[in-house]
Amino acid sequence: MRIATWNVNSLRTRIDRVEAFLERHDVDVLALQETKAREEQLPLMGLQARGYDVVAHGLDQWNGVALISRVGIEDVEVGFPGQPGWGENEVVEARALGATCGGVRVWSLYIPNGRKPDDPHYAYKLRWLEALRQAAGSWLDTPTALVGDWNICPTDDDVFDPAQFKNSTHVTPAERAAFAAFADDGWQEVTRAHAPGYTYWDYYRQRFERDRGLKIDFVVSSPSLAARVTGAFVDREERDPSVFAGAPSDHAPVVVDLAD
Fold first, then answer.
1. Contact status, residue 231 vs residue 179, Cβ threshold 8 Å
2. Helices 120-136 and 173-185, interaxial angle, to 10°?
3. Adjacent-strand bridge partners of 145
4. N or C, where is the chain less crowded by C-beta within 10 Å?
């Protein structure tokens, strides 16, 4: 079984690239983030014609998550128990979508960015991660993958210039501790050993061409699922503006292979 995660930065804009990616890599399950639309606005007929089922959760032109599967989609869950809201009205944003696909529980997650360490969004990010950790505690004994854009660089190796980011989000001790807490509970990040290198490159100043990126997209697995991982890779070509027609997302897809 092959699963993948990709912050697509607008599914309506990149639906052709998503369809081609699924075929090129023979992907069974794809989790998407930043779909940026409500489900009824998404052009899904091409995916369905290829034998994929799709569930999506989006409220407006921001955020949004989806799951695309050709091995079934069951027990769909929009948001996780205790997921915190944002803003004065505590709106629970479209950042988490879970479903069972081919016997594996897959959560497509778009963790809040945090903006700046002194911004209320940063405190929201830390609350969101702790709430996810608390909810995920009951999932550890089942084959479960927490996949997506975590918006955290867990180590200095995951950022092209740690000194440049020293006053920024993604690398603060609190964020890194929040990520590490999942490992403390027994979760395992399964891509690093097989797929070193970055997963995100800003559009600014040819960051991709100069390989000035961040590793922020991860597959965090329960122990039973981690034991089934046989390999992983980052599809850098999908981020390369010189390879395929049309503007790429600023993230590259991350692909993981599982033994039966």
1. no
2. 0
3. 106, 221
4. C
Task: Identify the residue whose tokens are 């945090």.
Answer: 114
Residue 184's CB is within 10 A of a number of other CB atoms, namely 9
β-strands 2-7, 104-110: how paired? unpaired
The two three-digit tokens of residue 191, written as one number: 């891509």
pLDDT tens readout for residues 66-117 = 999 999 999 999 999 999 999 999 999 999 999 999 999 999 999 999 999 9
> How would residue 166 be classed by pLDDT, with cut points 50, 70 and 90?
confident
100-123 burial, b for 16+ CB within 10 Å, e for fewer?
Answer: bbbebbbbbbbbbbbeeeeeeebe
Given its phi and psi angles, is residue 37 left (phi above 0), alpha (psi -120 to 50 degrees) or beta? beta
List the chain domain ranges.
2-258
d(C-alpha 216, C-alpha 205), whole Å? 20
